[in-house]
Design a protein that fits this description.
By secondary structure, this protein is α/β, with parallel strands linked by helices. The protein contains 4 helices and 10 strands; from the N terminus they run E-H-E-H-E-E-E-E-H-E-E-E-H-E. It has a domain of 131 residues: Cytidine Deaminase, domain 2. The strands form 2 sheets. It has an 8-stranded mixed β-sheet, with helices on both faces. A two-stranded parallel ribbon has the order 5-10.
């Protein structure tokens, strides 16, 4: 099975003009932009989930990010979400991980690939289990997407009203996931599914 990786420079994303949606797209509210930068500061890699509400723009799916939830932190090679989280109805989950400043500039614009180890091997395994699997890598300089299909990223400008709604959604999902996951922290089998109805 082939995969498709797209790379986006942070500077270009932030300054991008609004253009026609040409493929399925992750939409990150501007409210979360600083969080995507802050999560890259430090020595440790982090991983978690983007909780997204699905919407449509013509034939394409928009994944509107409502929460960025960090579930794991550790050193290189040990960090991937330990549970496969699935949501029903109009929400979906996109896994993410971070190549932080402490990992070094070599990894700021790519997934690691060490043959049978590294990001690419892990992501391909997940894609083989779940054909619709998607992943985002955050680094200090870039955002990258991985999946079977082309996946774009856009930053959505927010006003006071929409920013309040984003903060409320993030709070809801964070509390909800903290409660659901508290007894699952010892789990390390990705195939164990935490299904949220």
């Amino acid at each position: 099975m082939t995969n498709l990786i797209k790379k986006f420079k942070r500077e270009a994303l932030l300054n991008a003009e609004v253009k026609k949606i040409e493929c399925n797209t992750i939409v990150i509210p501007q409210t979360f932009w600083q969080e995507t930068i802050d999560i890259c500061n430090g020595e440790n890699e982090k991983a978690g989930w983007l909780i997204c509400k699905k919407a449509f723009a013509g034939d394409h799916i928009l994944y509107l990010v409502e929460c960025m939830y960090t579930s794991t932190e550790g050193n290189s090679g040990s960090v991937t979400p330990k549970l496969r989280l699935t949501l029903s109805n109009d929400h979906t989950v996109i896994e993410f991980h971070v190549h932080p400043i402490g990992l070094g500039e070599t990894w700021f614009d790519k997934f690691s690939d060490f043959g049978e180890r590294g990001d690419i091997a892990t992501l391909n395994e997940r894609l083989n289990i779940v054909p619709q699997y998607k992943h985002v890598l955050f680094t200090p300089t870039h955002l990258l997407t991985f999946g079977k299909e082309e996946l774009d990223i856009r930053i959505a400008k927010t006003n006071e009203e929409s920013e309040s709604a984003v903060v409320e959604s993030k709070s809801y999902w964070t509390n909800f996931l903290n409660e659901k996951i508290q007894n699952k922290n010892q789990m390390s089998i990705w195939n164990l599914i935490l299904k949220v109805e």
